[in-house]
Amino acid sequence: MAWDRPAPTITGGCHNPSKGRFLHPEQHRAVTLREAALLQGFPPGYRFRLDRGKLAAALMIGNAIPPDFVAAHAVPIAALLRTEPAAASQPPTQPAASTTLTA
Description:
The chain is mainly alpha-helical. It has helices at residues 33-40, 54-63, 67-83, 85-89.
């Protein structure tokens, strides 16, 4: 990892230095679970249960969908559902069965 480049996709292996791509940009170590969580978009004060071990927490971090990503998609969808309830409940239209494609 480097300070002046985007971080790689955070995965469940983020705590393991053998994965290579999750090495701290200045120190000879893997990123901490807290650093990985911050990169993934978790708030700084989010608390992870470690009673099931670091691997379980790493998997939770790596499998999470970043909150900013969710908000960027969920807010417009929610607005659409509030303004057009009839359109949201109808199935998408299907092309006619006789439609043919020509080269």
